[in-house]
Amino acid sequence: MPTFEIYVVDAFTTARFGGNAAAVVVIPHDKDMDEATMQSIASEVNLPMSAFVKAQTSDQASYKLLWFNPTAKAAFCGHATLAAGHVLLNILKLPVTSIQFDSPAGVLNARKGSADEIVLQFPSSPPTVVTEPPSAYRTVLHAFTGPSLAETATAVFYYAPRANDLVILLDGIDDTEFAALDFAPSADTSQEILALNMRAAVFVARSQRDDTDSIARVFHINNAGFDEDQVTGSAHTIIAPLFSSLFGMQRIRAHQCSRRGGRMLIEMPDSDTVVISGNAVTVIQGNIST
Is 273 within the bounds of a domain? Predict the structure, then answer.
């Protein structure tokens, strides 16, 4: 019975039980695992995402990377990619300083940064402004802010086609108020939101803190429910080009202020590339037999 190393990692945090959790399963170069087994493992561990990495070359610098949530294979996941890079570079301490991941989202790069940070390079996902938003967009906004704040906060709507996300940029809201809000569609409005057929709603604002530039909250708006995504690397590939174009920022200190919370540094060396740096913490490590 084949046995594989498995790790549970909290990504985009320096503290256990913060950030966003992911399982990482390491498949040696001389072993295989089919996707049905990967899906079964992801369902069993029941974390937001599980990453499966398999060495493609003997020099351990190139890995195949697949992502699975508890119910399906995923097209892209930022926090699980950070977790995979953390396991390979910080825990297993491979004799390389950078790794190339061959993934469903294309070729992704991870390298060691300072203080055990992992630095990821992703394609930019610039959103486009929606000048005449449909009523369902305002329904999403009201489900987050409530009717009173919706009257005082200014909202601009964007659509991110690569991720299929609705992005709502808020102004006139402070960090504490933003972090305290919840996404709570009513029974009457849930179907209107689901009919948008989008992946997630990304709420973002400029921070008023000296050590932070952007604050964000991300909620799924699909048939899986309206759960909050605790820390979302993929959403920040949208926020980076948005803040770059609107505010001239090429370096963004980002805080996703969910219940678990997480932080990352985002940089845009060019218009096509987003570089995300973050920490991760190993919470559990062991073996799994298949």
Answer: no
